[in-house]
Structures are given as structure tokens and as C-alpha cells.
Write a structure and sequence with these properties.
The structure is a homodimer of 318-residue chains.
Chain A lengths: L7 H10 L7 E3 L6 E3 L6 E10 L12 H18 L3 E12 L3 H18 L3 E10 L4 E10 L15 E5 L17 H10 L4 E4 L4 H12 L2 E5 L7 H7 L8 H7 L6 E5 L1 H15 L3 E8 L3 E5 L5 E3 L12
Parallel strand pairs in A: 4-5, 9-12
Antiparallel strand pairs in A: 1-2, 3-6, 4-6, 7-10, 7-11, 8-10, 9-11, 12-13
Helix pairs in contact in A: 1-3, 2-3, 2-4, 4-8, 6-7
Amino acid sequence: MADTVGMELDFVSRLIASIPADSRLEVPPGDDAAVLRPPAERRTVVTVDMLMEGVDFVLGADCTPRQVGHKALAVNLSDLAAMAARPEAVVAAVALPRRGGDAIGRGLLDGMLACAAAHGATLAGGDTNAWDGPLVISITALGSVPPGGAWRRDGARPGDLLVVSGACGGSLLGRHLAVAPRCREALVIAGAFDVHAAIDISDGLSLDLSRMIDASGVAAVVDLASVPIHADATRMAARPGDGRSPLDHALGDGEDFELLLALPADEAGRLVTDGPRLTGIPFTIIGEVVAGRGLSARATDGSTAPLAPRGYEHAFEG
Amino acid sequence: MADTVGMELDFVSRLIASIPADSRLEVPPGDDAAVLRPPAERRTVVTVDMLMEGVDFVLGADCTPRQVGHKALAVNLSDLAAMAARPEAVVAAVALPRRGGDAIGRGLLDGMLACAAAHGATLAGGDTNAWDGPLVISITALGSVPPGGAWRRDGARPGDLLVVSGACGGSLLGRHLAVAPRCREALVIAGAFDVHAAIDISDGLSLDLSRMIDASGVAAVVDLASVPIHADATRMAARPGDGRSPLDHALGDGEDFELLLALPADEAGRLVTDGPRLTGIPFTIIGEVVAGRGLSARATDGSTAPLAPRGYEHAFEG
């Protein structure tokens, strides 16, 4: 990792100095790289997510650098949760705006450290850069699972039921920043239930579900009446000019960072019954996995129709 | 890792499809995260480096996306080399310019895949984003070392001699893009010599040396006449208006990605003698570690004077 000198040294030194000692680190932060002691007899799970100012957030009164630091780490931890992985270590690379970058860096670090501590991960190092562009932060999170223990998105089978944790939609009213990754919940579920497939809801319930079933080579039917709609989705739909239903918001808003799981029917029923006591959050059966390809929706009258996956999409020109 | 749909899907699918199968991957690329089988009885070494268009490179005829992909990975592998770590796996996050991003992404991927293959690392996944800003690429590299086997920058002791691989200076004439990380050389040296401290020369020989001695709590004296000067440094110094000596270039240009090592005197002598046969590259003793703090230079007449660390620096405003 490249560290740097000049005014930025403050940030790097502060970062290094503020990292709590952790027995998982054989070489402490500040060297060319971090050296981790991987837990014995476990696999290493690794994920990376980059957030860019103006795309994923807009710095300002409603979005502080601390919140960005939290979110950048939390979305990565949500990917670990989607694999049923225990968070272990984190490294971060940032491109800080030259103007005000020192204060921004301090806020980012505060947000990252608090989030890492809350989920048992150690901040192992990073790369700090300054430029004239917008803030960019890329975090890589390392977790661990027992051999063969990682949840995959390609294991859904016909007959499985689809279960979602919590509720969806309207995350833009605040949850998109105060991301609460389902790390602990995932570990509890992995220890007590037979999960065939899992994904976290980052880009939109219907879009992420379509990814799971496409990867699994199966189809799915969503019972529209059973989709758990977050109160934020209802509030957003009620705003003048919104023009979308609460269900629309729940199916397509994304950034819910809930778990979407496929389990055998009896396991799904048990998860709905016992999950709240074990994890403190509700679980809802929203549909079933069937043979075939593609996503469809069942209305309250029992009729089904194709359901177009909706959610956050990037796009290129030319 | 967030993947995305739309035109970008091409890039993500191509990335995933073009990753060679690797027995180190328990879950293949394309899931929420990669699952790696860490080598038994070894530590995990992790490093991250971000490159930004306009700061670290300028895309154009002299710098293609493929070269950027190569460099972004190679500078991370150089950090692994500086720890004597064997490259294992790599993940990449990119912010692609919306305009032309698809072609840029393809070039980046080609450069990364070739570099990863050349050094025995597997590309395990990534996060692809599009925006209206410049190209940003952040790579995290994972390596492995035996317990206690990682080279550190804080182990230099008075009496050690300082050894540099290859030659320094003038990297802007081409080597700053065609980075050749000293991964294999580092593993050979680690297996045959007692190295007390190591760092890679990324920002400048004198600056990186100052980091090593500061971390080690020692001082160093550089014999100016012995610094190996790259032919590119001589060529740069000869350019009209350059105004710097070849030695100046060697001490401060950076991006040499050579190894700077501190070893006991007898080991350093053996490395200079046997290193070329073992690794195919030359090694040169450039000075010694002494008690105290700070960097000084010894001229050919034997006089010493403080040597100001020079190299690439970031800086913030306000």
C-alpha cells in the first residue's frame, strides 16, 4: 500500500494510530501490506465495492463523510453476510478531493472504524490519494467461512421458498446511508437452517432475485401481496408526484441490504417462525422457486404475469 | 461485490467468463463475494492501491487501458514482493467513464489478466461502475507467506547494509507503465538470505529509504557514488532544460518498483555476489544503516551531509 507524505501524512498516521490492536494482524498497519492470520480450517471470503461522489452519494448537510465511511464499509459487509461469512478484516483505498480532503478523510475514517468495530472486523490498512476529482472510496472486506459453508446465489432449486429479511423500499429516506448489514443474522441463520441460495438486496428486490434465479437456472414466482413493504416505501409513495405504489418501491428501490434466501419449504417455515426470536428481525416468505427461467408475479386473484426486474443500473455510452 | 446490468453487463460477464478456473477458488467469480482456499499454514498478506486518471496516468496514445490495467495490478504485486509474499488472488474495483467505458473496461481486463497470469495470481472478482468522472481503478492483492516470514520495513538495524535491486531513475520514459514487480526475485531472496527490512521503491529511492529507517528507528548513510543509475535517468538528465543530474533522478523519480533491502553485511555481500545468478538481476550495496535518525549522503571525498528525502508526494489544500 502506498502511503504518502506532506499534509496527507496526518491522515495516514492518524489512520494507522487509530486502528485498535488486533490479534488477527501479524504485521501491524503501516507496512507495504498487512499480514493476517487466517482462522484455521476456514475459507477466505473477499469482496470489493467502490462508491463515487455524485453517483452513490452527494456530500452535504444530509450526507457527511462519516456517513459515507460507514456506508462504504457496510455495503461490503452486506456482501459478506450474503455469503454467510464472518467479517475479519478490511482495507480501504480513497481518492480525496484536494480541497478539504483532510477533514473528509477524518470523517471517512471515523465512520469506517465505528462500523468495523460494530461487526468485528479489523481495519488492516489502506491507500490514500488526493486529486482534483470527486471523492472515491473503494473498500475490500475479508471474511471467513467453514469449507463448503459459503452461501451461493446459484443454489436455488424448484420447490424452494423465497424468504426476505426485514422489509423493502424507500431506502432513500435514510436507510441508504444508515446501512445495517445483516452479518450477525446471516451467521445465526447459517448455523440453524439449510439455506440453498442467498443474495443481499443491494440494487432492488426484483433485480437481485432475478440474478439469483438466473445464476441457479430456475424461475421464481413472487406473491405480490406477501412482499414486506417498508414504512419508508409507503411514505415515499405518498409524496406528491411520486406516482409509484409502495409495492413498486419495495420491488425496485434497492439499497435495502436485506437478505434474500431460498430454502426448502419446511426450513423456510421454520425460519419465519423461529428467525425473529433468534435474530431479532422478521422474515417473510415472498414466493417460490419453480422450474424454468424468468421472474413472474402472482396477484391476489391468483393470476400470474411476467415481472420485469427493476433496480439500480449503470450504463455506458458508445 | 455489486455487479450491474445494462451495457455494463457485457463487461462483467466478460470479466467473469475470462477468468481461468483456479483450484484456489472454492466459489467461482460471479457471486456476492469470492471464496478462496487459503494455503495451509500460511499467513494472508493484503494490500490495496488505487490509480486515478490525470494523477497516476493520462489515457492516450502513449497509455492504453491495457497498460493501465497492467500497471494497477503490478504496483500491488510490487507491494506483495516488498513483503516477500507469493501472489495468490486479486480483486478490482473500477469507475469507468460513461463515454467509451466499455472499451476501456475491456482493455483494463486484458492488462490485468495478463499480469495476474504472469505472476501466478488468480483474478477473483470485482466491482464495475460507470460515471461521468475520470477512470479510477482500485486493486486489492492477496498473497501468502509462512508465519513470521513477511519482510517488514521496520527491521533495519545498525550495521546492516542497504541493497537495491536493478537500477533507479527515469521511469517516466516507460518503466512507469511497464512495471515489472519483483515478485519472483523476492521469493528467491527470502528463501536464501536473511533480510532484516524491505520496501519497494514506488515513490522514490530516498523517500522510500527514509520510510524504512524512520519505521526502524535508525539512520542511514547513502554512498552517492554507488547508487545504481538507470540508463533512463541518464537519458532524462541529458534532455534540454532538464536541469537535474542522473543521480538526482535515481534518488527521487520513483516508480522504479525495485526492492530496497537491509541485510547484515555478510548477507548483503552474498546477495550482491549470488543474487544475479539466482534471480537474473543485479544487486548493489548503496550504503549502510547506522544508529540515530535521518538520512545522510556520503560524497566521493568521504564527506557526509543530510540528504533530503525526495519523491512523489500528494498534498491537500485547507
